[in-house]
Amino acid sequence: MAKSSVHYVCSDCGWNGGKWYGRCPNCGSWGTIDEYHEAPSRTKTRIPATATAQTAELARPATAQDSEPMERIHTGFEEYDRVLGGGIVPGSVVLMAGEPGIGKSTLLLETASNVARQGKGTVLYISGEESQAQVRMRAQRIGAACDDLLIASTTDLATALDLISSTKPRLVVADSVQTIYASEVDGIPGGSTQVREVTTALIDAAKGSNTPVLLVGHVTKDGSIAGPRTLEHLVDVVCQFEGEPQTALRLLRSTKNRFGPTDEVGCFDMSGEGIEEVPDPSGLFLSDGDETPAGTCITFTMDGHRSLPIEVQALVTKSVLPSPRRATNGIDQNRLAMIVAVIYRHAQINLLAKDLYVSTIAGGSAREPADDLAIAAALASAATDTPIDRTTVVFGEISLTGQIRPVPRLENRLREAARLGYTRAIVPRNRRYDGRKALKGIELVEVASLKEALRALGIAQRRRSSKAVSDIEPDGE
Description:
It is built from 13 helices and 21 strands. The chain has helices at 53-56, 78-84, 104-116, 132-141, 157-167, 192-209, 230-234, 333-346, 372-384, 410-419, 450-456, 459-465, 469-472, and strands at 5-10, 16-17, 33-38, 93-98, 123-127, 149-153, 171-175, 213-217, 237-242, 249-257, 265-271, 274-277, 296-303, 306-318, 326-329, 354-360, 392-394, 397-398, 404-405, 424-428, 443-447.
């Protein structure tokens, strides 16, 4: 028996060499070189001198029409279908990655149940982490149990391939790719060698039988997908399931998609009964109630093609510490420090010696440069105790000179704001923008500087009449 050749592969960048290194010579990562034993070839490939007619038919022109058009498989979730580009493409391999306990298995189990209930074939759910009884109990708890949903528990690749071949399902879910192993290949389950071999075999099975496969992938401590980097190159679609464990909001986005866009995002709500899609997440990041307290400002941030409203809240208190406290949630702390300095220099509002607490609602993120003006407005509103009208939204990037710079996709943000009932928008002055005629029911107030924006929000007038001048005016002025 021929001895298998040994290669060393980097799990981060996929570098391949015949010598082991502690540090990858390609990407510079430490401790990522794994030993890979290549199985010996049992048959020698022979290249024919002349191609046969049958081989020549394998290459077809790009304009050739298939006898049957390819129809996507709907997952039962419109949010999931939009992220995938309209549904699951037959024969494709989709990798779903996310933090432990985020809801990957629950989402795919409900997806498998939805496809099985369409009545067009069975769905095979292969679990390498749970027994059949455990998966069945979870399916019954979330209402996903049905007759056409077949559940199998195995970690052997050969058994999984035999199940796919014998049952001929319409969809296959493998949970997870790191727990399934090939017995004829060296390496531990979850290692680079095993993950590459298992993924390649499942891809061959998917392409050969035109059966789509949904794979669950584990992630490392830094959030990257566990296993070799080539895993993401092999599959057709890579999806990330994100969210804070403390909140019920889950976001699904695709980082790679051969059959659709990669800038779409799907919103889901996690509960004890399973996962529900949120087709209109406009109210998730806004606080309830009709009151307008000081220190709040609303803006719209772009996540893919979707415009989401974000409420920024700020609290300004007197500091008793030598170094004032800066606490943020959903906002970049370095960006906050820059905005505080710009407010001090160009709006004459001194927050340098104050404790500042700035946060978003329900785990939203205001890390886009277009959210700068909303953060500054919330801080100025809290410092001067001046509420901002609840029907007003704010957009703009703040430069170090105090100017308000234009933001991308302003018309999409304004259109969503008008749909939700906002009647006034503070926007950067931009001569190239010509979308005012298309927006009805919302008043646009163009500003060129931070001082002008605060004056339009009514904060500058309050600053002049405030008695607490020492808290607002800069020291020495």
